[in-house]
Design goal:
7 strands; two-stranded antiparallel ribbon; 2 domains; 5-stranded parallel beta sheet; 13 helices; elongated; Rossmann fold; binds zinc ion
């Protein structure tokens, strides 16, 4: 296994430290601007301490717990008001964790805010990311529906394309379908997606936009080019002594969103297509009880699928997938022309 538990734990420590550090920096900023808040903070700390001391000595009068709590909450209210009056958000001095579900501990908090033993979705996601190095989904800064630009698609239908829908109209429709998919991801009846179209028309881009939104919703996502995916499946089957490969295979089977890009570019072999059918069957059965969706992306047209895949694979795809057809010019070239002022 590449990623040890300790490495993940370190990552969570780092996230927590950073969250606390940046809260402390905000605190300094606020103290400089509004010294009264510093005084309030000191009073809150002192009250908290004396409350604890009294409690330890068991000298608390029956109603004094309420007295402390009330006093503290009054000070907190005063502090919030001062923040807002000085142009800060009321929660400006709270620690802002990356994951609010587990406060960056990696484990879901119980009702008292203590980390339990159930791994948080962010923990599972980190594990998946670490195994497959798919985090480029987040880091290129150019992925996300807000970067979708319909102007990259021609506005008039191409001659001889056999349709009077323009690539632009079609691309906008496809984008809407993608957003619907994100919104209905947890619905077991929401169909899987099948992107088809020539190279460079935005299939990978849109599937990564979906991936990003699904990640934000807290689901696990795995993005793999078909050759790499088949490679993992093949190795887990024939070199099953490796724990890592076994885990990788499990993740392919169970990740909540699996994106198989460039389907059809893997080297052909009958065994692989049995594996593909097994995989698609397994995932669609699992989707009944828990989200387990698949996005396929390929240059192959639906009518050409049967040239590469068995009839059973093709009928599974055509029957269970929403076919999203993109066409137009190669966006990479269009972008270059636009930049050069053509
Ligand atoms: Zn979390």
């Amino acid at each position: 296994m590449n990623t040890s538990w300790h490495e993940l734990k370190r990552e969570f420590y780092k996230r927590r430290d950073n969250a606390i550090l940046s809260r402390d920096q905000r605190k300094e900023e606020v103290y400089r601007k509004v010294p009264e808040i510093k005084v309030l903070d000191q009073q809150i700390t002192e009250l908290g301490l004396s409350y604890t001391r009294e409690a330890i000595k068991q000298q608390l009068a029956p109603d004094s717990a309420g007295f402390f709590e009330e006093k503290i909450s009054r000070l907190i209210e005063r502090k919030k008001k001062l923040l807002v009056d000085n142009g800060f958000p009321a929660d400006y001095l709270e620690v802002e964790y990356t994951c609010k579900n587990c406060n960056d501990t990696g484990f879901v908090l119980d009702k008292d805010g203590i980390p339990g033993t159930t791994p948080c979705h962010c923990y599972r996601q980190l594990l998946v990311e670490r195994f497959y190095d798919i985090s480029n989904l987040n880091s290129d800064g150019q992925t996300g529906f807000e970067f979708f630009n319909e102007n990259y698609y021609p506005d008039s239908p191409a001659e001889g394309a056999g349709t009077d829908v323009s690539p632009r109209t079609q691309a906008i429709r496809v984008k809407e379908k993608c957003i619907d998919f994100v919104n209905n991801f947890e619905d077991k009846d929401c169909p899987n997606l099948f992107f088809t179209g020539p190279t460079g028309v935005g299939k990978t881009f849109l599937s990564k936009c979906i991936a990003l939104e699904i990640l934000k919703k807290g689901h696990t996502v795995l993005y793999l080019p078909a050759p790499a995916m088949f490679d993992i499946i093949y190795r887990s089957k024939y070199q099953s002594d490796s724990i890592m490969q076994d885990n990788s295979h499990q993740d392919i089977l169970n990740t909540e969103l699996l994106i198989i890009d460039d389907l059809g570019t893997e080297s052909p072999s009958a065994a692989k297509y049995t594996e593909l059918l097994t995989l698609l069957n397994y995932r669609s059965a699992r989707n009944i009880s828990t989200p387990c969706k698949t996005i396929l992306s390929t240059n192959l047209e639906p009518k050409d699928l049967h040239k590469m895949y068995s009839e059973r694979v093709v009928s599974r795809i055509l029957g269970e997938y929403d076919i999203l057809y993109l066409f137009g010019d190669d966006i990479r070239l269009v972008k270059r022309f636009m930049k050069d002022g053509f």
